């Protein structure tokens, strides 16, 4: 199976206080120490992103029975207890049973972590939102599906289900105008569960063209990546020589050539033209 390398982009400010010339610690760590930060989903600014609610509002008896049968297979020790629930249709008289998704929600949202990257290097909104109004940078990272910088070695390549010990899920974000399927009975033990909760955003964010890496059950932390993974640093349209010098300083101990590029405002169109201007060799 072929695993081609692809480019992904992290838009970052260079300063935490530009007027005071104070470098941004996370950005400095990204370039100087080659570390990517996986954030807790509860820290995201969009109140819907990674905050959708599982429910059983429209579950049928067949949905409940199928869910309970799956639980019996997963946990045979609870067979007798679960069989009573099923035989007596206790969900019709005990609404608290609908809180089954609380533990799943805690595992997915609170005890896990996420890396967000972009697919394109010349996004006007992304430079504005995440790179200090075009005074910052876009860092280009290049890796394949079996080289994802997640802190966990890739698993058995002959078994796609075992990649990264099944703790890592990665995919492009799906942008929707309406909420995705959130009925827990229909999502239980299904790939769509993580897709609905972690890889779905409101259509208004479509311009981000986001690629996301989700680490199930792994708390927020930074992860070191190989030097050769950092391919290019693209300076925003409002950066100057001082910003280039700062990044070169951070690259001083990098030990691998890095292409430096500049995003320039297009003439006659709403767009940015990205042009390489130097290959920096520490």
Annotation keywords:
282 residues, 26% strand, five-stranded mixed beta sheet, alpha+beta, three-stranded antiparallel beta sheet, elongated
**Order of helices and strands, N to C?**
EEEHEHHHEHEEEHHEEEEHEE
Strand content: 25-35%
Q: How do the strands of the widest beta sheet line up side by side? A: 1-6-12-13-14
User: Which term fits the overall shape?
Assistant: elongated
Number of helices: 8
Question: Quick check: average pLDDT?
Answer: 90
Name the helicity range: 10-25%
According to DSSP, the number of beta strands is: 14
Instruction: Write down the Rg.
Output: 23 Å
The protein's oligomeric status is single chain
Reported for the largest beta sheet, the result is: 5 strands, mixed
Low-confidence stretches: none
Terminal CA distance: 35 Å
Q: Report the structural category.
A: alpha+beta
């Amino acid at each position: 199976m072929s695993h081609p390398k692809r480019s992904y982009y992290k838009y970052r400010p260079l300063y935490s206080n530009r007027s005071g010339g104070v470098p941004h610690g996370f950005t400095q760590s990204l370039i100087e120490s080659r570390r990517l930060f996986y954030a807790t989903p509860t820290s995201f600014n969009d109140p819907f992103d990674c905050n959708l609610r599982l429910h059983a509002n429209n579950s049928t008896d067949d949905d409940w029975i199928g869910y309970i049968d799956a639980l019996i297979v997963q946990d045979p020790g609870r067979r007798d207890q679960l069989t009573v629930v099923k035989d007596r249709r206790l969900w019709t008289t005990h609404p608290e049973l609908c809180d089954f998704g609380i533990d799943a929600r805690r595992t997915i949202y609170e005890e896990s972590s996420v890396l967000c990257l972009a697919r394109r290097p010349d996004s006007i909104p992304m430079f504005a939102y995440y790179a200090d109004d075009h005074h910052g940078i876009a860092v280009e990272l290049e890796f394949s599906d079996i080289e994802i910088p997640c802190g966990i070695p890739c698993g058995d390549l002959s078994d796609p289900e075992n990649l990264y010990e099944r703790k890592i899920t990665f995919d492009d974000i799906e942008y929707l105008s309406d909420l995705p399927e959130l009925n827990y009975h229909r999502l239980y033990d299904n790939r769509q569960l993580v897709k609905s909760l972690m890889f779905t955003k409101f259509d208004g964010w479509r311009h981000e063209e986001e690629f996301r890496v989700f680490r199930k059950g792994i708390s927020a932390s930074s992860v070191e990546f190989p030097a050769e993974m950092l391919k290019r640093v693209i300076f925003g349209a409002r950066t100057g020589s001082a910003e280039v010098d700062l990044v070169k300083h951070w690259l001083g101990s990098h030990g691998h050539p890095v292409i430096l590029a500049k995003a320039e405002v297009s003439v006659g169109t709403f767009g940015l033209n990205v042009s390489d201007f130097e290959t920096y060799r520490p």
